[in-house]
Amino acid sequence: MSFKVLGITAGRKDSNSEILLKEALLACKEKSADVKMINLKDYNIFDCTGCTACTQGVVEGKKVPCILENKDDKKKIMDVMLETDAIIVSIPTYYLMPNAAFLRFMQRNLCYETPFLEAIGETVHKDKVAGLISVGGSTRAWQSMSLEALQVTCTLNDYKVIDMYMATRVAAPKQCLLDDSMIERAHKVGENIMKSLNTPASEREWLGDDDMGWCPNCHSNALILGEPQWDGIKFDVECQVCGAGGTLEKTNEGKWKFIIDSNGLIRDRTTPEGRRHHVKEIGVTQGGFYNEENLKSTKERFEKYSNITFPSI
Length: 313
Description:
Layout: E1 4-9, H1 16-30, E2 34-39, H2 53-59, H3 74-81, E3 86-94, E4 97-98, H4 100-106, H5 114-119, E5 128-135, H6 146-155, E6 159-167, H7 180-197, E7 223-225, E8 237-239, E9 245-250, E10 256-260, H8 272-285, H9 292-306
Parallel strand pairs: 1-2, 1-3, 3-5, 5-6
Antiparallel strand pairs: 3-4, 7-8, 8-9, 9-10
Helix pairs in contact: 1-7, 2-8
């Protein structure tokens, strides 16, 4: 049985993001993968309404369908996406991060996030992998949150990110076609996907550039100063993607290095266990809200704001 690979883009038709995605998918096709590709601009995807019905369902241990399920194309895509063995995502960078079309799609995932569904017994764990491509008109300086945002949206849906590539300084439509090394690197993303799929899940490793990123756990290039988490856990420095905690140390060569603490992976979002921990947090935070006293108090306090209006545009 061939592996199922889904390519996802959300950029201009027939331009850089789509071209690089097609090149990566060609590599998968060459290895007999069952390949599909979508451009999110061809679909109708609504914004999350913030109704919290799905999170409340998780707290109560039951699956609650998205209230938009029959109103747009989200479920249609997710039904296919959740059955894949791998995805390759190629997205243009706007304002340092992935474009809104992609984020709108992925931020609707809570109803479909497998860690949540696994935690309440609605599905079983499936080992999947992902390759990521960000595409922008500048260098990393103006794409500094692009791959990291792609990473976290895929990681939280049980995809192990095994390769990432940032295509830089391709501002004009189809400009990537003038750079053979860029096309070759996109092809390599597809090759790495197939190499990973043909490796036992427990042995799958990072196949991207060895020196990529600050974090030795997920290879993200983004660290933050740590703050106390909901249950008191605190690290000096955290990877903002995987949640690894540690410190910065200077090497003998005078370069800074992120060193993960001995317990620094207890909140590792790249693992099912680490992601399920967030289910516990939601249960305490949101689950603890719904009691008679809190509901009465918020109703009384909201009266101050319910009748306030300001001129609109």
